[in-house]
Amino acid sequence: MRRTISRCRHAARRAGRAGFTAALSIAALTALPAVAHAQPAPAAGKAAVNVKAAVNVKAAGHELVFVRDGNVMLLRGAVEKRLTTGGGAARPRWSPDGKRIAYLLKNRIWVMNADGSGRRDLGAHASGGADWSPDGKWLAFAAPGCTGGPVVYRVATSGKTTPEVLFPAECKGQPLPAEKPEPARGGTLSERIAVDDTVSWAPDGKRIAFRGGMCESIYDACLTIGTVADAGERAVATFGGGGQKSGSATVPSWRPDGARLTWTASTSAKLTVIEYDPATGAKRTLGVPGDRELSYRTARTAYLTGERDGRSWIFQLDTSGSTRTALRQGSQPEPRP
């Protein structure tokens, strides 16, 4: 009974803030601090905790995509290649086999080959970054739906099916609402990140992490792990209800072994990256205040977006300690599998 009453109490609030969420979510992905292409020398005295200078990543065998000036970039060794032009791109994600890249382009889900060729619109609009199923056949994404908040859908990467609802269960069978005009950008970085609807599909294929869910009937903001088979949901971070402080948890990312999940938390003026153990519920902070949108390469190595000289930079992070290596100006890094 308490849950039913609570859901009714929060329904109007969810619907009321849906417009605000839609207006900011894509801006969270594309309207990040401006960055330049030149690579300036590290400023003396401004290094964060154990931060190394920019390095040639070829020796470590790193290959990743990231975003700069609204375009998807490929970094292979020390060589950069722009894969998209014209701006408006965000949240690139490698396919499990490393042959394709999914990304957002002005609210729509696109797929291209690893070299930037063969770009294809999958015919679905989203309010955050999509993620691949482990078999590469599906992309999960979030968009406004029947609850007034983010609903998680999946669409075939072949582009031959219409999107279908995965979460919440009460929206099953409902179609993806018609696309609305792209809203104007606005809000601070923390405000935009707080409504980022990027999702993350677990390596076992059984779970998806996403912002919102049924927990929004109780809390102002929350992050959920959903079970694909039965649409079950478990809130793993909650804010603004039941004595919890206000804040948000967004941009989830699974570790390759599925044993850890990270998200970008906003509970103060600075963003932070939280790592969560789904088995025990234990949490810890990774990186330094201001870091965001982490993506794992291995259990020990990850990439994230941080701040350097007032700009967004990509850092390599040793998750067993606090070593952060500055690599390139940009944001939203995603290492190749």
TrEMBL record:
<comment type="similarity">
    <text>Belongs to the TolB family.</text>
</comment>
<dbReference type="InterPro" id="IPR011659">
    <property type="entry name" value="WD40"/>
</dbReference>
<protein>
    <submittedName>
        <fullName>Tol biopolymer transport system component</fullName>
    </submittedName>
</protein>
<dbReference type="Pfam" id="PF07676">
    <property type="entry name" value="PD40"/>
</dbReference>
<feature type="signal peptide">
    <location>
        <begin position="1"/>
        <end position="38"/>
    </location>
</feature>
<dbReference type="InterPro" id="IPR011042">
    <property type="entry name" value="6-blade_b-propeller_TolB-like"/>
</dbReference>
<keyword id="KW-0732">Signal</keyword>
